[in-house]
Amino acid sequence: MSARRVAIGLGVAALLASAGWWAVTTFVPEASIDIDQAQLQQRLDARFPQKNCTMMIACVTISKPVVRLTEGSPRIGLSADVLVSLGHREMPGQVTFSGVLRYVRYEGDFFLDDVRIDNFALTGMSPELVQVVKVRGPDALRRTLQGHPIYTLKGDGPRSALAKLAVRDVSVVDGKVRVTFLRFGG
């Protein structure tokens, strides 16, 4: 008889906890922070130039990125100076690319994924070689940006840690990156 009461009590407690969690996630309003282009640009400037080499023969260096946020697009655009080095030959140029923000929970880091090259121009390079770089460029950009977040939520306190865990969505709204998260407490 007492085992039955314990089981019923645990069942009721689990049901109440589930109902409470559902109520919190459904009815507690979401909070958000907006990161404007200037803030994003400031953080990016500190993380560049970025360099990636393949077998020490071919290197791609990206520097001086400029952020472009387009309303209604989930993608973040960047234009940057690029320096392609093949052996002792260096070819400077410009690259315009975009990517989708990926958020890494617990770390508070935002990375650029699904990188697409929109425009690419190098000086001192034959058109055939430009085509090769255009084909292999997205992979080189991905490798260059892979381990380097473009933005990090700051803060090491308990509230910051909770905010890092509660991020629900990242999107571009009104020319800003909006980070939406559940509000826990005040």
From TrEMBL:
By its UniProt entry, which InterPro entries does this protein fall under? DUF1439
Alphabetized Pfam families for the sequence: DUF1439 (PF07273)
Q: Protein name, please? A: DUF1439 domain-containing protein
